[in-house]
Predict the 3D structure of the following.
Amino acid sequence: MGYIEAKNVVFSYEGHENEKGAEVLHGVSLDIEKGEFVALLGHNGSGKSTLAKHFNAMLLPEGGKVYVDGLDTMDDSLKTEIRQRAGLVLQNPDNQLVAGIVEEDVAFGPENLGVPPDEIRRRVDDALKAVEMYDYRLSAPYKLSGGQKQRIAIAGIIAMHPDCIILDEPTAMLDPMGREEVLRTIHKLNRENGITIVLITHYMDEAVGADRVVVMDSGKILLQGTPREVFSQVELLKRHKLDVPQATELIYELKNEGFDLPDGVLDIDGCVAALEPLLGKG
Amino acid sequence: MPVIETKNLTFTYGAGTPFGKTAVNDISISIERGEFIGLIGHTGSGKSTFIQTLNGLLRPTSGKVLLNGRDIWAEPKKIRAVRFKVGMVFQYPENQLFEDTVLKDICFGPGNMGLSAGEAEKRALKAAKAVGLTDDMLPKSPFELSGGEKRRAAIAGVMAMDPDVLILDEPTAGLDPNGRDMLLKQLSDYHRVRRNTVILVSHSMEDIAKAADRVLVMDSGKAVMFDKTEKVFANGGELQKIGLRVPQITEITLRLRKDGYNIRPALTVEQAVRELLPVMKKRRAENG
């Protein structure tokens, strides 16, 4: 049994004047294990954010069931417990920070959970250390860079001691360094603290570090597997107008020219290592 | 003749107060008519401040901005005309749509320029086409469009003013890869057909590599590089030092080069394939 279990989830947003809107998820089933790092890919409109918002009871299934640590998201009395276990980080850090000082912002979640004050102090310090922002605990959030703000948003969730963090395009608004900071942070939380990560992203190079890649298309799961398995399916992904990392695409193109190259090359190192034996130095 | 020139352009927020912060520091550059310029720099490097001085939204603390050879602040009362000639698409422009139909929204800019309703609509239709909005979308409310379509409607609104210079701040942020590629292609096509100048601000080095003729790199308010795209991205180490990166494909070709292979840095996967194939074929022939 997975830590998060989605069984045959059907969902549609409300349409005009109480009419039913178009169905966004058509019976999606997905199990996520505790401690797993899952990257969720797909077009805008593929249903990936909608699915992820079911994982902390932000949205409730119209058909099917979602369980978080065995808790049924349809049970309203469990909502607080579910949200404590699975926290959500969104795209725009400016919409998620509420306080004037970093540490107050991080304390907001545990305060709402009724955690005792000295315990809050400890949690806030630990959370800020985990995202490497402890030195900024007395800063004003608006003075921080995008990557720093996003890490504060993550710290705010960590302070609630979740088992799982769901991140919906957390790097979409960040510069290259900010993206790296955030990626490094969530990998560290996954590796060192065993936190389950669900990362929604449009950047293929962010997905290659995941344990599992799940590709959504038109409200269904199109493909899933290890990054290597998924990104070996270049043709299928291209047919669905999805992207692969540039390293993968380069190897794929050269293979099509009849060169003997491995499948599922994912990154710069792999690509360079695969190419060099086939190149002459002359 | 350059369409835009800056001469010792400096902008300080809160100039003359103890909290003054110089965001643009002594930039002198010149952009030729018809160029496609990429502008990169980490968050806080001064990119947004810089572009806002180019269309007169911010008045330089010192130095000048010349548009078609004329100081845009020579007659401050006419600054509005500058904003029609240097069109600005802000980040997340779809949040600024407000009319009750898509067509009316796109007509708003040209209408404001004092064009007749007929002429404004003619331009709006052309701009809508350029960004791939179909006729059936035009009478709809902007709120019925998808996120990507809204974004393109907002960009069309600025294009419809037919500016000499079109500046776009992170136009592809939040779009999926297909949406990014489509919008980039539309911008490139628009640029090719109209032959006007485009300045694209982006955190996506891949987007810049695909589209730009020249790249301006900003760091701490200064213009630290301004050169042909392939030359800028050949400086992987320098860019890394100021918090930037090169596209993955460029990094791969730079690594091969460093390892002693005679490969030129590539900006796109197609370029890399073109560069690698002859070398690989030669090697294969030699080894039988």
